[in-house]
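Reopening this one. Same input as before:
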Amino acid sequence: MSIDIIKLSSQNHYSNKPMNKKILVIEDEVQICSNIQQILSFSDFNAITANDGLEGLRLAKTEKPDLIRCDVMMPELDGYGVLTALRQDPVTESIPVIFLTAKVGRGDLRQGMELGADDYLTKPFSPEELLKTIKIRLARIEKPTFIKQQYEQEHQQSVNLKQQIEVNSQKLQDSQRLAEICNQVLQKLLQDLSNPLSNINMAIYMLKKAQSDVERDRYLNILQQEYAREMMLLNEMKNLQALLTPENAKVMQNFNLLK
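Same output, byte for byte:
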């Protein structure tokens, strides 16, 4: 396998991987473990190693790798024992595991799959086979994650759009309400302004018909009063224009000051 590693390094088939995933290698054969670590390092993976199952379990919990490549036949705790412990721990239960084994019997494969193995790689294997198996398994993990992120992003955009529509709808309702209030106020002011004008017009007419100073003084007094009343209403219109905002209109409606 060392020649294959040198060949892989020189050709650099996988050096342009756009990720730096963490791979835990659990392998009791020291040379094989070292070779696999070099293969993964050449391919821009962050490879960590353990030479027995117990050490592998410890690293799986502390390092939380993206994927575990585990040998099946190991002393003390074999690959099946490692996989069982991984699947029973909430911290490690979802980490994909690829078994490496020289046993290719149907019963062995079934046993691993029933325990939750994600894939098998049989000995002997080439660096390309190892990397391809890991790449495919990682891609299957990332695809649901990407879809989930895309869904969450689109959902958030939908929520934001809905909120913006609600805000714009509220602004439209406020504008319509203000327009109605302004119309009501305008109608009332027109009515209030017409009364003094009618009295002024009548007083001018009577003033022309007056036969005595007493009558003229009376109608002049009426003119002065109605003029003052008209000016007061005009000043109120100016003040009302400054106060008549959507916010103030709501307050006035809440206190039944406006219909």
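So the earlier flakiness isn't reproducible anymore. For the record, The longest helix spans residues 127-209.
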